[in-house]
Structures are given as C-alpha cells and as structure tokens.
Amino acid sequence: MCSSRSTLGFQMERKQGEVDHLERSRPLTDKERVMIQDSWAKVYQNCDDAGVAILVRLFVNFPSSKQYFSQFKHIEDAEELEKSSQLRKHARRVMNAINTLVESLDNSDKVSSVLNAVGKAHAIRHKVDPVYFKILSGVILEVLGEAYPQVMTAEVASAWTNLLAILCCSINAVYEELGWPHLSNSTS
C-alpha cells in the first residue's frame, strides 16, 4: 500500500474523489501487463490527439496544474489550449514517457529508471507537487475510458488503475527520498 503526502494547505480541485483509488497498488499480473500493452497499442496510434485531450482535460478541470507551465498557464479557453504548440509538445513527451513504461513492463529495472528520472526532474527542476501525478492519473483513466470505450473495458481499466497507482507510489517514493517538503521551499 502506498501512502501519499500532499503539501499542507493544498486545495485540490476535485470533481468526485476520482483519484482516491490511486492510493493502493500491487504488482501487475502477467494478464494485466498484456491487457495494458494491448490497449495502449490502440491508444498510442492516436498519441498526439490522446495526449492533447488528456492535458486539456487536466488544465480545464484542475486549473491550478497550469501554474507549472509558463508558456500556457494564462490560457483559459480549452480550444486555445488545444492549439498551443507548447502544450502539444508536452503532450507528446507525456505520451512517449507512458509508452516507454508500457513497452518496458517486463523490465522492472527500466520502469524504475524511467520513474526515478521523471520523479527527480519534476521534484528538483520543475518543483511540481507530487499530488499532480495522482490527478493526472485520474484524468488519464477518465479520458481513455471516454475516448476508447471498446478498449477500456472494466477489466482493462482496473489494470490501468493498478499501473497508474504503481506510477504514483513510485514517484512519491522518489519525492520522499529527495525530501520533497524541503525542496518546495527552495528557490531556483
């Protein structure tokens, strides 16, 4: 079980409680790995559109998440966000990182390495509160479920939920190892 700490006084915009299920993780089964990889192959065919849809949903539903993006943090309109070349570039990076994880599910060292690098970059360089990984994970599940209902069956969605819980727990562990609360008070 993974526990997560968020910054004191942080108010997260929440629609329902959609990220609570990302608190618990367990190792992926072989069946879950296959389901995740098979479903991701279909999603990744449209990686640009899917990535943009995920980030636009994140920024519209959780506007405080835009604070980390100087290039488009003042854009309020969803259509304008969709057109932002900087948002599109970041969406591609997010989708490529997920793709690397999914392709590497049989290689725990590679998965750990990628998550460690992502966690360190977001903690040290970008100073992103780790709660946003849980929020993003909830948005990913929501968008994929809506955009790919034939692919994201209940069983596949459950496997993805477990993978994203593992991701959140791993990122949180990196943040804790780095002493995250102290990093948030440092200057760049």
UniProtKB/TrEMBL annotation:
It catalyses: H2O2 + AH2 = A + 2 H2O; Fe(III)-heme b-[protein] + nitric oxide + H2O = Fe(II)-heme b-[protein] + nitrite + 2 H(+); Fe(II)-heme b-[protein] + nitric oxide + O2 = Fe(III)-heme b-[protein] + nitrate; 2 superoxide + 2 H(+) = H2O2 + O2. InterPro entries: Globin, Globin-like_sf, Globin/Proto, Globin_lamprey/hagfish. Keywords: Heme, Iron, Metal-binding, Oxygen transport, Transport. One of its GO terms (molecular function) is oxygen binding. Its EC number is 1.15.1.1. PROSITE patterns: GLOBIN (PS01033). Residues 27-176 form the Globin domain. Gene3D superfamilies: Globins. SUPFAM superfamilies: Globin-like (SSF46458). Belongs to the globin family. This is superoxide dismutase. It comes from Oryzias sinensis (Chinese medaka).
